[in-house]
């Protein structure tokens, strides 16, 4: 090599072994992974077209159909995070000028608005205060007023800790010739959602929340009604990477032989699901109730008023008066190696968020975090006497 | 739960432990990962805003700057595969009606054309036969004829096994007020590329090739010239997930305090790089020469005529007369647990591709695959007497 070259040196830190602290992740995600998932992460790779991987993809599809409670053939995992699945949902459905209605009661409705707008949709918002959910009547008024072809709503609003009731919503949307798109990133597996029965047309989630796997493979499913809209598009989706016609051919969702020359790589993750959905929902509910009772015993006030509207996977409390939320979370991280989060978007500065997701939703973890929060409340009071 | 519900059952296979064969991946990627990388894959997760992760991100950035040989501040890893990085490059730069010139001598120029067209660009192609590369004169004629703002070219054409010379290309493009975008998915780390010195404006790669890590984190870098185009866009990029202004804020590339409420998750991968770039380039070259000599000794004909134009990471040979390529690859997979690939796109049916990437580029692996190919040639001849 010529000595005239100005070499950029490698950072010395790359020669050091990777060191990562062992931490209990009780924020709104990621959650910790169980040993079975972690050990799968250390397996050697196989090719993206090997028959064993095709089998694993079929298993993943079946696992997603189970956890979504759907029989939709177009069900697969996106090679990206939950955000990426959100974009995949919009960009396969939306064409320039299409009307979209987004329910906004926290950050995810705002994000959906941003994404759909970038794609050229005419986006209208149905707005409620952070901490509240939408009634069927309110949604019907929005559908009547705006005649959208697509309605977006968040099942588990992780910025506020609200769970959105979904019963009857699919039928309502379909009466107005509208597709129902639901974000279940923070809720899937932790609280009931029944895609086919509730008439949800597009449903997606992430892997690093209740599923307790690393981020990077995100479940998504499309009803036949949604597929029809995709098939009858006038323009190609603006992404090849997330084009459902391409992905569907690779995942064998369209009844044709798999497209073999599709150079898409997927990361293999097996959804951990030992106990079954109903038990998972029950455990998440019980542990959330146990946490909320403990928080109230410490004198803390829950952010979501109605008990039934409380998301069991992300529990929100008001930042108590006389405290700085950041001091509390930093105290707990520093002294207990536990992640607890502040708010996000409209709840920033107002709330603390305690996640109990998947592998992390256990009674011992609740005890640990309650102990840590109690201690933080003693140490972090401002203007102590 | 009500008994009226039609439950979708979990697939029985999900209750089985994951079983993956141990296979030598000598196709065009993915390659096998070394133990150090695999063991990092079994680490517990940490939060996407924890200070340890911020440090790891800075290390990753430094590692990419080293392997790209660039000092660009806007250097980071995309949460997706190489395809996703390709889209990130185009969608941050291209606006409706922008003129793009794509060099097409294999599948990747076609893919670039597809992606840029979806984004509304006016795409022109500069075409050569698969197996050939482009000269500066040919490219200059294309720039003169079409006046594009962006020129796309593939450094390592993995569908044909050609390495594209890059010296002088940046200067040429800049004389025509054009940005230079280079795909180095199949070449990075295996053959020299010097981003700053060669005047490359946008460079990206994947993690599952020479870097020998799992797919899902893809290096990308933008020159200040490219950043300027991004900053002066009239419209927002159509993706939030891949919006470089957002990613740059999260990765701390813009000189401002990091954007803390950015809910993007990244997968931690430490680029393995023990020996240094020059030794890596040298080893890839030596092992490729050793393989090519062995293939010729078996009577096989190399697809790329000029020795200097042969990509050391993906080696291509003509399918020998009297053979079906698929029988050869299946024989080798079945009897030797080695992946060797057929062609892709324009080379489909015509060539066999043998990848020697990163951790897999070793003399013992070459011996193993030569032995397997020799045996396959004896067993797979059609119409045997």
TrEMBL record, chains A, B:
One GO BP annotation of this record: L-alanine catabolic process
Entry's Gene Ontology cellular component terms: peroxisomal matrix
Stored Pfam families: Aminotran_5 (PF00266)
Highest taxon of the lineage: Eukaryota
Transmembrane spans: none
Enzyme class: transferase
UniProtKB keywords: Aminotransferase, Pyridoxal phosphate, Transferase
GO molecular function, one term: pyridoxal phosphate binding
Positions contributing to substrate binding: 353
Family matches, as InterPro entries: Aminotrans_V_dom (IPR000192), Aminotrans_V_PyrdxlP_BS (IPR020578), PyrdxlP-dep_Trfase (IPR015424), PyrdxlP-dep_Trfase_major (IPR015421), PyrdxlP-dep_Trfase_small (IPR015422), SP_NH2Trfase/AEP_transaminase (IPR024169)
Cofactors that this protein relies on: pyridoxal 5'-phosphate
PROSITE patterns, sorted: AA_TRANSFER_CLASS_5
Residues the record lists as N6-(pyridoxal phosphate)lysine modifications: 209
Reaction(s) catalysed (UniProt annotation): glyoxylate + L-alanine = glycine + pyruvate; L-serine + pyruvate = 3-hydroxypyruvate + L-alanine
EC number: 2.6.1.44, 2.6.1.51
Aminotransferase class V domain mapped to chain residues: 26-368
Family statement: Belongs to the class-V pyridoxal-phosphate-dependent aminotransferase family.
Assembly and oligomerization: Homodimer.
Name by which UniProt lists this protein: Alanine--glyoxylate aminotransferase
Gene: AGXT
């Amino acid at each position: 090599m010529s000595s005239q070259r100005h070499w950029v040196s490698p950072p010395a830190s790359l020669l050091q072994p990777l060191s990562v602290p062992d931490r209990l992740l009780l924020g709104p995600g990621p959650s910790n992974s169980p040993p079975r998932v972690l050990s799968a992460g250390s397996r050697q790779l196989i090719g993206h077209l090997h028959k064993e991987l095709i089998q694993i993809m079929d298993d993943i599809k079946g696992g997603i159909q189970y956890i979504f409670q759907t029989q939709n053939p177009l069900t697969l995992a996106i090679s990206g995070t939950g955000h990426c699945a959100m974009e995949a949902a919009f960009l396969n459905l939306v064409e320039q000028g299409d009307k979209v209605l987004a329910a906004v009661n926290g950050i995810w409705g705002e994000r959906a608005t941003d994404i759909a707008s970038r794609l050229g949709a005419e986006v209208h918002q149905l707005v409620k205060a952070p901490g509240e959910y939408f009634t069927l009547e309110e949604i019907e008024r929005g559908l009547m007023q705006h005649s959208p072809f697509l309605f977006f709503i968040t099942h588990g609003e992780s910025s506020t800790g609200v769970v959105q009731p979904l019963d009857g919503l699919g039928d309502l949307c379909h009466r107005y010739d509208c597709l129902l798109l639901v974000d279940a990133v923070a809720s899937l597996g932790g609280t009931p959602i029944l895609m086919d029965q509730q008439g949800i047309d597009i449903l997606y989630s992430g892997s690093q929340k209740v599923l307790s796997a690393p981020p990077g493979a995100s479940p998504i499913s499309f009803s036949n009604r949604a597929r029809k809209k995709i098939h009858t598009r006038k323009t190609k989706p603006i992404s090849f990477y997330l084009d459902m016609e391409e992905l569907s051919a690779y995942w064998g969702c369209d009844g044709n032989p798999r497209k073999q020359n599709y150079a898409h790589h997927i990361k293999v993750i097996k959804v951990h699901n030992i106990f079954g959905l109903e038990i998972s929902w029950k455990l998440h509910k019980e542990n959330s109730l146990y946490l909320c009772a403990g928080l109230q015993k410490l004198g803390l006030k829950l952010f979501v008023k109605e008990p039934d509207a409380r998301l069991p996977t992300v529990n929100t409390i008001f930042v108590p008066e006389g405290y700085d939320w950041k001091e509390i979370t930093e105290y707990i991280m520093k002294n207990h190696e536990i992640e607890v989060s502040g708010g996000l978007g409209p709840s920033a500065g107002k709330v603390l968020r305690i996640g109990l997701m998947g592998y992390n939703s256990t009674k011992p973890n609740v005890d640990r975090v309650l102990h840590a929060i109690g201690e933080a409340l003693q140490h972090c009071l401002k203007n102590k006497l």
